[in-house]
């Protein structure tokens, strides 16, 4: 079955459809990871986005429920150079084609992903439409131009849990070496704006009882659980559009130790009075170099974000701690007086490098 990917600039790519026979619109972005495609597919931060994998062969180890980062596939569409038809891995429950078909998500293979990625790098992320049903180029381009895009959109409300819940699952035997298990003698409230499950596993692993609350929770609702610390999660969309979350973070600052990741980092920056801006094509992959300016150590990190905090707008007391070595954008900040810190990248890193897992231990130490 034929499929087409149309960009808002009029470019149309024709390939073979896989997954669901469907059509979807979204912001077309790319991820440079060699593995971890199922984690990408199920990461809520990719809500509203059509994801292109730069690694040419995808699907070779199939899929398994154990590798999911949320309860369902979150991407709007999936673009690969070549789809593996027969996966080879003892953990696999389903091939990638069947996995996306069951999720109702359309994919396309057989296009020149190198050309697509070069276009996105030069011109920036663009809106697009991926379809296995409508194949008229002009109609698809018109739909891509009509898509609202990411700036100014609150997508958090589309992915937050319906109600609070507790989490107690740590690492399985394949990851126990990353963070040694510790007794659960701290209580953390994790504010879920679209959180990856491996973040919760990391918090549990370092000795935290975790209560997860929706990202729409107020400061009073968060503090009513009387936690030892507060965690702010990753999530999709424009951080500046999530005013209720910024107000909640501002309301808990200084009252409990606080740690934020990705969108949580951006919300902390905004709550402190800084500003955010949209990156040209974002950082998405498992090979992003970050310098810890406090130690001089370089970490290889996993990232997935299209917005960043402007370091020139940080207020007094807020200290930049990490910088991206590819484009010098801000990757971490700390406010010692308010006992708060955050990073733009993903230290839970599944699948990905483990250089940054120490940050969960730092959070535990900050809680005393």
What does the model show?
- The chain is of the alpha/beta class and 368 residues long.
- It has 2 domains: 2-146, Carbamoyl-phosphate synthase small subunit, N-terminal domain (Glucose Oxidase, domain 1, 3-Layer(bba) Sandwich); 156-366, 3-Layer(aba) Sandwich (Rossmann fold).
- The chain is 21% helix and 32% strand.
- It is built from 9 helices and 19 strands.
- It has helices spanning 37-42, 96-103, 113-123, 137-146, 197-205, 219-223, 243-252, 263-272, 358-366, and strands at 2-7, 12-19, 23-31, 49-53, 57-58, 77-79, 82-83, 106-109, 126-131, 165-167, 186-192, 208-214, 229-232, 258-261, 276-292, 297-309, 318-324, 330-335, 340-343.
- The strands form 3 sheets. The chain has a 10-stranded mixed sheet, sandwiched between helices. Strands 1-2-8-6-4-3-9 form a 7-stranded mixed β-barrel. A two-stranded parallel sheet has the order 5-7.
- The longest helix has 11 residues, at 113-123.
- The protein is globular and about 60 Å long.
- The mean pLDDT is 96.
Task: Please give the alpha-carbon distance between the first and last residues.
Answer: 58 Å
Helix content: 10-25%
Mean pLDDT: 96
Q: Give the helix tally.
A: 9
């Amino acid at each position: 079955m034929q499929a087409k990917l149309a960009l808002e600039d009029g470019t149309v790519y024709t390939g073979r459809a896989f997954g669901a026979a469907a059509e979807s619109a979204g912001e077309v972005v790319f991820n440079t990871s060699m593995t971890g495609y199922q984690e990408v597919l199920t990461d809520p931060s990719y809500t509203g986005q059509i994801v292109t994998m730069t690694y040419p062969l995808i699907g070779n180890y199939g899929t398994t429920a154990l590798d999911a980062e949320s309860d369902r596939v979150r991407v709007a569409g999936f673009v690969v150079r070549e789809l593996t038809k027969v996966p080879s891995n003892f953990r696999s429950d389903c091939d990638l084609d069947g996995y996306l078909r069951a999720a109702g998500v359309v994919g396309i293979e057989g296009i020149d992903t190198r050309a697509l990625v070069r276009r996105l790098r030069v011109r920036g992320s663009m809106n697009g439409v991926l379809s296995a049903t409508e194949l008229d180029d002009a109609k698809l381009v018109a739909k891509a131009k009509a898509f609202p895009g990411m700036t100014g959109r609150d997508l958090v409300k589309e992915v937050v849990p319906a109600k609070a819940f507790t989490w107690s699952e740590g690492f399985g035997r394949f990851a126990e070496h990353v963070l040694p298990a510790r007794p659960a003698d701290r209580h953390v409230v994790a504010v879920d704006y679209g959180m990856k499950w491996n973040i919760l596993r990391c918090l549990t692993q370092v000795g935290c009882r975790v209560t997860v609350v929706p990202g729409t929770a107020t400061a009073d609702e968060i503090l009513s659980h009387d936690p030892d610390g507060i965690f702010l999660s990753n999530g999709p969309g424009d951080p500046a559009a999530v005013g209720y979350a910024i107000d909640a973070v501002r309301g808990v600052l200084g009252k409990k130790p606080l740690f934020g990741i990705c969108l949580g980092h951006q919300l902390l920056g905004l709550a402190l009075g800084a500003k955010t801006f949209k990156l040209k094509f974002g950082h998405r992959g498992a090979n992003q170099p970050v310098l810890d300016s406090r130690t001089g150590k370089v970490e290889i990190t996993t990232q997935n974000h299209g917005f960043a905090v402007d370091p020139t707008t940080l207020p007094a007391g807020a200290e930049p701690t990490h910088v991206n070595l590819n484009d010098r954008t801000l990757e971490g900040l700390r406010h010692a007086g308010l006992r708060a810190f955050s990073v733009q990248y993903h230290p839970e890193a599944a699948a990905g490098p483990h250089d940054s897992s120490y940050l969960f231990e730092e959070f535990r130490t900050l809680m005393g």
